[in-house]
Amino acid sequence: MNLEKFSSVVRHVTHAMQHGRIGFSLQQINSIDDPGKVLYSECLGRLIEPDGTIRTSSEFIAFLEASGRAPAFDRHVIELASDWLARHPSDALGCNISAENIADKQSWALLYDLLHRHRAIAPRLVVEITESLPIAPLSAAADLLQSVRELGYKVAIDDFGTGCSTPETLLALRVDIVKIDGFFVQHRGDTAERFLRCMVGLASCAASTVVVEGIETYAQLEAAKAAGATHVQGFLLSEPTLPPVHYGWVNSAPHAVAAKWMM
User: Fold this and answer.
1) Which of 38, 113, 124, 196 is the most interior residue, by most CB within 10 Å?
2) HSE-up (13 A, CA, CB side) for residue 52
């Protein structure tokens, strides 16, 4: 995709942020032994077009990452999540954070400042590190993420087993939760089940909470349970709405949102 396309997407999302049209829907992470017990709900980004059409974050986040604007979007969603948690004191949420937040010093400073300001809700917010881009260097990333944990937040590795996530990542980073990519439950058979068991076993070495994503059938739920996972996430137990459950801009006037976006 060319730079003109990147610029077009950035302008479009910036405009949506300025006008309170960025929000999120929720998908639960459920206990595998007691599916009615919710660990927390992940915020899934949504963009509302002026005509009411809803866009999921999967339709634009790759462009934001390629153009270096994903961290600003992440911060906006965290602001919204913090507002939601203030209004729902019994809830817990998880927000995706691009690895670019860790790689870039300015992005990290802005993110840490935001998390520090909202540290009152830290025990109820999980920071999910998405690794569509490499985390480097890992030693520095480990120190940064530990500082987030010291504020009281939990840290999760998202989509483990695909993209740029590796066993080296698990060895280097102290995390509370590892989420196994749904790819590993999409196949049936002895080989696929062994792969899933190995992935869950590896994740269990790094975190006591292991979530298998992409659960859409009871057979997949049973496979995740047999593999030793503690929690699951997927349409079988929690299908998020397309319209956002929460959206708008918080703690900023529209012009301030635009200024933050450009950082």
Assistant:
1) 196
2) 0
Question: Domain range holding 181?
Answer: 25-45+70-243
Distance CA 200, CA 58 (A): 26
Tokens of 188: 């049936």
Q: How many domains does the chain have?
A: 1
Cis peptide before 137 (omega within 30 of 0): yes
Question: Who's near 198: CB < 8 A, 6+ residues apart?
Answer: none
* Residue 3 within a domain: no
What does the buried/exposed string (b/e) look like for 98-129 if buried means 16 or more CB atoms within 10 Å of the residue's CB? bbbbbbeeebbebbeebbeebeebbebbbbbb
pLDDT tens, N- to C-terminus, the chain (263 residues): 566 777 888 889 988 998 999 999 999 999 999 999 999 999 999 999 999 999 999 999 988 888 888 999 999 999 999 999 999 999 999 999 988 888 888 999 999 999 999 999 999 999 999 866 556 567 778 889 999 999 999 999 998 887 666 777 788 888 999 999 999 998 888 888 899 999 999 999 999 999 999 999 999 999 999 999 999 999 999 999 999 999 987 654 433 444 444 34
Q: Which residue has the tokens 């992470």?
A: 29
Please tell me the pTM assigned to this model: 0.90
Give Cα 51 to chain centroid, integer Å: 27
Please indicate, yes or no, if residue 248 is contained in any of the structural domains: no
Q: What are residue 226's phi and psi, to 5 degrees?
A: -65, -30
For residue 223, the SS3 value is helix
Q: Which residues pair with 28 in a beta bridge?
A: 41
Cis previous bond, 35, omega within 30: no
Residue 112 lies in a domain: yes
In a domain, 251, yes or no: no
